[in-house]
């Protein structure tokens, strides 16, 4: 009976495997201790009572789902700041490399380069401001016991901020890719080209990481909402 | 009403018990409340996790005598401070309600 209950709670928390594992171990310890402390000698009856006293697995899982969602949101906030910092470092490293190797955009493409550079700067600035604002916003919110409407609104605001930061970063990275292509145009692939290519790979990976975190929020929000419905 | 004070109750039970696992926290709450707070036992665990995430508790895993893995919670300094603040607020609230229901004037707040 206890195993069935544990399987049930693990199933409900399947969207967050590490939390499910941790909760399962904690609940298992609790239930067997309750069985051991039960005054009635009947093991099956003691198990039934322990499970009944513990409460509905779905209700408990719903409370954990809110925690999981809050944790994922905070992680995404931190990720947004780290991603902005990572891309900034990659950009600066690439620009320093261009200066060291004296690579420059050819004269006929300088106007295009200037325009793309401006888009890049403003998109990155927007991403940095919005990402930082999102992180400060979500870390200052208290985690409630349930997914009540006020907290839903807070999470929605944070989600919008994260999506805006990710979109702005994507524009910035695409602009960087265009600038890198313009810089590398006409040069032969050599060991010197490795630095711009690696820095671009880092930037793309950073944006991918942020998108992955945002997807995690959406996934957990859906799971928490589904658990709350019942 | 109990739901709104669950965090304070858990913090107070842990403060009294020292380090404790979930089952011991529930037993402590039941014992200290004279059985008045007989809440669904499972609701304690999300509260413990939430308080840990807020930095009010810390936890570590150990192996119990039974051989099972056990998570033991301890109040942090921040948790002790938060509990002290909640005690003051609760005392003021309790005095005010006592004054209202009993007809006695609550003591003036020195602040």
Automatic annotation (TrEMBL), chain B:
SUPFAM superfamilies, alphabetized: Winged helix' DNA-binding domain
Entries under Pfam families matching the protein: PadR (PF03551)
Domain Transcription regulator PadR N-terminal: from-to ranges: 10-85
Name under which the protein is recorded: Transcriptional regulator
Organism: Bradyrhizobium erythrophlei
